[in-house]
Design a protein that fits this description.
42% helix, binds nicotinamide-adenine-dinucleotide, alpha/beta, globular, 17% strand, seven-stranded mixed β-sheet, six-stranded mixed β-sheet
Length: 454
């Protein structure tokens, strides 16, 4: 691995034409392999809804590449200006420069998207790339390696396959930038490893993304959006609504509305329904069942009470007012379990959120400007999504990233280009150089001038 990195670091950055050429080729490869992407991910999961894969791992990435190709000629332009009058007529510029070789480490929940997205940004900025896909989705990892070999040479984009030991070794390489997507726990290890080489990191992490429903907001509309966002990919989404905060007298009506919209979307969740995805593997299935086993039975509301477990297909469950100290409320759920937490009012809801880590996304359902302003001012999160779940991820012009325990740095669209570039400052001294007027020896007249300027 290290030799490969050395070799790639010795090679030049991509020209703008090469970047556009590779991005066009990547776009075509994704377009021509939609079914293969669906198949690879589904075989890793046992079953992944094909429409979810098309939306989250094909459409989002194709739009991202299209947006990047369209705007790249503007993004690469230097920003130039004439210096401040004291330095006149010298000039300044900021020129984006490729960082070198970027490392990308991806998780298993959107195993294609979270390779292709950072890759698009890295190539746009002119970098060569080494990728470590997740070992939890090995068929997709192998597929990614084969697909990218059709678009890039081994020295342009190099895919490394392997388990956690290989991931650890990968994160210790002296990359020029490392973008990691995964858990907060592993993010800390990655940052420690990267620090040895002073490799700059972007950490796209997880955590609990709360939902807050304001008193005035239609429960029917909120429940529809929450059900869509939570059950998508069986809750295995970094920005999935983790739990809902709502006033106590609205808990029951909310549960009823959630039931209705869940059954509308998924009349059944057994094997015949292509639309509902499995939990990725036995380990995660058992982890989720373990979270439920610790709770008092009366809190658990099975939305499909007659469903008999089929492999890793886990039926959606609502948990009515679990204890804040329960493991369910302490760790990121990352599965089809939705806790509802009763609060007295907006202030208590804000305090509840602020007692936890800063979330990746905070969802707010409210039509009141005043409430929206208050939540914006009194909470901190990677992103705030008002009256809708998930789709903020697909906005090319919105930087995507966390804050505090949910991550550092961001990407998508122009922000991805900036993250993967070194924004180099350049100063051009003019032939006429006024600096001599403020250079030693400091004669009386120069001193007067400096005094006047200071
Ligand atoms: P993970 O942290 O277990 O693994 C992510 C990557 O780290 C994998 O490539 C894996 O090979 C590697 N890895 C695992 N253990 C390692 C170790 N000890 N040393 C070095 N590398 C190691 O995460 P996961 O279970 O694959 O993914 C789920 C997590 O990712 C959730 O917390 C989720 O919220 C988060 N996530 C975040 C985003 C985002 O954009 N912010 C997107 C998707 C998922």
């Amino acid at each position: 691995m290290h030799n490969q990195l050395n070799k790639m670091q010795a090679l030049p950055a991509f020209s703008v034409d090469e970047r556009l050429d590779r991005l066009n080729a990547l776009q075509k490869a994704i377009q021509n392999n939609k079914q293969a992407i669906i198949k690879a991910i589904s075989s890793d999961y046992g079953h992944r809804a094909s429409s979810e894969t098309l939306l989250a791992e094909v459409l989002v990435n194709l739009e991202d590449i299209k947006h990047t190709i369209k705007h790249l000629p503007d993004w690469v332009k230097a920003d130039k200006w004439t210096a401040d009058w004291k330095f006149w007529p010298s000039r300044c510029a900021i020129e984006p420069e490729a960082k070198g070789v970027v490392g990308i480490m991806a998780p298993w929940n959107y195993p294609f998207n979270l390779v292709a997205g950072p890759l698009t940004a890295a190539i746009a900025a002119g970098n060569r790339v080494m990728i470590k896909p997740s070992e939890v989705t090995p068929k997709t990892a192998q597929f990614i390696k084969t697909l990218l070999a059709e678009v890039f040479s081994e020295d342009e984009v190099h895919v490394v396959l392997g388990d956690v030991d290989i991931a650890d070794e990968f994160s210790r390489l002296p990359f020029d930038h490392l973008l990691f997507t995964g858990s907060t726990r592993v993010g800390k290890i990655i940052m420690r490893n990267a620090a040895e080489n002073l490799t700059p990191v972007t950490l796209e992490l997880g955590g609990k993304s709360p939902v807050l429903i304001d008193r005035d907001y239609s429960l029917d509309k909120a429940a529809k959006s929450i059900a869509k966002g939570k059950w998508f990919n069986a809750g295995q989404t970094c920005i999935a609504p983790d739990y809902v905060l709502i006033e106590a007298d609205r808990v029951r009506p909310l549960i009823d509305a959630l039931k209705k919209h869940t059954i509308d979307a998924y009349p059944s969740i057994d094997r015949n329904n292509d639309d509902f995805s499995c939990v990725v593997n036995n380990r995660h299935f058992d982890r989720l069942q373990g979270l439920l086993k610790q709770l008092p039975q009366e809190q658990i509301i099975a939305l499909y009470p007659d469903y008999q477990s089929q492999g890793n297909r886990m039926a959606p469950v609502i948990v009515n007012q679990p204890d804040q100290q329960s493991e369910l409320m302490q760790e990121e759920i990352f599965g089809p379990i939705l806790p509802i937490v009763a609060v007295d009012d907006l202030s208590e809801a804000i305090d509840y959120i602020n007692r936890g880590d800063k979330p990746l996304t905070l969802y707010l359902f409210s039509n009141k400007r005043q409430t929206i302003r208050r939540v914006k001012q009194h909470t901190s999160s990677g992103s705030l999504a008002v009256n809708e779940t998930l789709v903020h991820f697909a906005q090319q012009r919105l930087p995507f990233g966390g804050i505090g325990a949910s991550g550092m740095g961001s990407y998508h669209g122009y922000q991805g280009f900036v993250t993967m570039s070194h924004m180099k400052s350049i100063y051009y001294q003019s032939r006429l150089n006024g600096n001599d007027l403020v250079r030693a020896p400091f004669t009386k007249i120069k001193k007067k001038l400096i005094n006047w300027m200071s």
